[in-house]
Amino acid sequence: MTNSILPALIFIIGGFMIPFFRGRAKSIYMMLIPVVGFINLINIPMGNHYLMGFSDFKLVLLHIDRLSLLFGYIYHIIAFITVIYILNFKNDVEYVSGFFYAGAALGAVFAGDLFSFFIFWEMLTIGSVMLIWARKTKSAQAAGLRYLLVHAFGGLVLLAGIVLNFTETGSLEMLKLTLSGPGSYLIFLGIGINCAWPVLHPWLTDAYPEATIGGTVFLSAFTTKTAVYALARLFPGTEALIWIGVAMAAFPIFYAVIENDLRRVLAYSLINQVGFMVVGIGIGTELAINGACAHAFNDILFKGLLFMSMGAVMYRTGKINATDLGGLYKSMPWTALFCCVGAASISAFPLFSGFVSKSMVMEAAASGSHLVGQKSYVIVWLVLLFASAGVFHHAGIKIPFFAFFGHDAGHRVKEAPLNMLIAMGIAAVLCVFIGTFPKPLYNLLPFAVDYHPYTISHVLSQTELLFFSALAFTLLLLSGIYPAEMRALNVDADWIYRKSGKALYQIFDTVLNPLNAWCERLVRGAATGTADFFKDAGAKISIFVAVNIWLLAGYRDKHLEIKKQKLYNDILQGTLPAGIGAAVTITFILLVYVFI
Amino acid sequence: MEKKHVFDDPRNVKRLLTVFFSTVVILLILDVFYIVLSKTHVIHRHVNYKWEEFWGFYAFYGFVACVILVLVSKYILRPLAKREEDYYDK
User: How many Å apart are CA A21 and CA A27, to the nearest integer?
Assistant: First the structure.
């Protein structure tokens, strides 16, 4: 047992205390939480801590090794940066849920067993939904609900997988799994939903652009990267991941080209970047896993930076569609500069962070393709190269060009607030630092690194690739072929549950509602009919019996009618003489007694 | 009168484009040098595939990739995927 505190608790409990602070003290307190967390983290020794057990379950709340530590470090760094970024929003809901969310992510990466991992995994969903709802618009509420439903489903799939896996193996340990039984497949799928695998991805592109300005920065860092971590921990070297990753890297760039909402463009490019990581984990060699982790580390920084710059634009202009923006370099030069740094980093320009990590995955794919039985890795390599060119095209050029350059939309606004600039500045400096001096990052990776990004060959080939992508953009733009941005929406796989959901509703409406009405008529008709019948059934039976007796007794015509009418009224109104009532009851009891 | 900014002056845009196009050409020339130097074993070149050694492979690939990307997005994906902005609200 150590003296250290659970990293997740520092964030979660620390976060809940935020509303008790005011003014400057609040800002300082918020910035201190990640700092205290970081100091706590670097003092925790490697190994398992916080062991708990109940009945057969052995829970490990804090498992520290090189893999979890790497994600722990970057989560603290991005939390610190994002907190500075959101200081001017003065929104306690956003603050508390942001810290809750970051704490949940820390809890998940440090969880040493599948059960506590699941608990923190679910908390991630809660925190992120709150960040979406904190925007308080109607579309944010709807998107948040859809997000919640998808992730609640994903959580159940994961839980079912964990339970089945436990019954199969009797183990809850966070160790490498092979895809064999239904348990492992369900865990794989549950993680895949959070990882935004193709077709399972639309929760991301649907909800992230609807969150608050700061919320999106938080969101871009934690959910998908925690899923990447979980895949690296549980499914390294699973071949299916290679092809899933290839699809993730390739398809979103097409959407990104035609998308108008610039934060949604970034959401698509987020999937594209996670694709590189997933491919790396699927290849599973030391170089590939290192590449995937290093790229996750860098992506959190440069994607955060890009979302921050777009958030600043949105904060100042109130617009985020490419059709409404342009020429902002004039009034927001620093934001423009930081955005360009983020763009250069995601595009993997030499001296920027993407360059030193993305190429590790590429290299792992290329060297893997020479092994026996892995010829198809050539395709992986070619698609990743295509995706590298494509990401420069949509995230590297499109984002800065349409927001800050291009045609001047006439916005004359103030530069972003100082705290936002500082946050973006820190992220930008880190991007350039890691890109220029990759050694410190390489030293943190799970395996020893024997990779040198700065060879003449790599620098020259990457620069050629990027400059000619830029050439294509320039020529297409000048010739007018480049698709103009349009105020439109592009349907994606979420159509399945957003539109077909409505269609289903309509089917139910047209088929089931008439059926329902018919059933109602039937039941009601039968019921009223029966009720009508039984209302005076007793009277009618009595009259039938009585009339025969009266006929025998010689009553006829008028007398008979009067007697019938009197009997009918007496029975309906219950004014029969007590003697007759008693006689009927006794007769009934006797009949029952005789026949049963 | 609003302050004039860098790209308000068309000459600056033209200058930027000139610098850009020159860089593109210079890169292709550098590639020639690099191929010559590596073929004569002055510098070692690590390649995984033969085609990486072709002149301008990466340049060609990057250019073609982006043209295909834009054309597919514009002429195939957009007609299929584009809807009114309030499509889901209807």
Answer: 9
